[in-house]
Amino acid sequence: MAEAQAEQEKQTNRHRKEAKNYKVGDKVWLKLDKQYRTGRQSRKLDWKSAKYTVTEVVDSHSVKLDTPPGHHPVFHVDRLRLASSDPLPSQAQDDYQPLPLQVDGEDEWAVEEILSEQRKRRGRRWKLYFEVKWKGYHRTTLELAEALGDTAALDRWEAYTRDFRDEEGRLLEGFRRDTP
Length: 180
What we know:
Residues 109-180 form the Chromo domain. InterPro entries: Chromo-like_dom_sf, Chromo/chromo_shadow_dom, SH3_Tf2-1. Component of the NuA4 histone acetyltransferase complex. This is Chromo domain-containing protein. The chain is of the alpha+beta class. It has three helices and ten strands. A five-stranded antiparallel β-sheet has the order 4-3-2-1-5, with no helix packed on it. It has a three-stranded antiparallel β-sheet with strand order 8-9-10. A two-stranded antiparallel ribbon has the order 6-7. It has helices at residues 2-13, 145-148, 152-161, and strands at residues 27-31, 48-59, 62-65, 74-76, 80-82, 101-103, 106-108, 111-122, 125-134, 140-144. The protein has two domains: 2-82, SH3 type barrels (Roll), CATH 2.30.30.140; 101-164, CATH 2.40.50.40.
């Protein structure tokens, strides 16, 4: 009986992967699936939420992360990927990622400035996009005008570009505000 169990264990373990060993203080990317929604317009980037720090190793296959309040902090090691700690020389060393503001139970990020706008065709319609500089982030993103809503940065942008628009209200080609 013991010999059969040993053979069965050997055959089963052939297909298993060793669990990755994480240490307290490691930076990891958390892989999200359908049960974890981020509320982004595109689900293509939902697999990568943010960098988290391992705060406790629960057992060989699960770790506790420093997730925001309201999220269960313990995850299986298959859902994690070790974040690179040796960036290329040209990459910025800034790792700061401010948490979103909680407004009426929803996540919101603070807009620092709008740098440019462009119209893109989506299907049969033209959509207005703004290049947005976020507070606390180095990179800018292109956001739909509807996603910005009524913000002070949008009011400043409209006042700033009022003299650079044609009769139809479109901004002159290639107009861009320098980064503040």
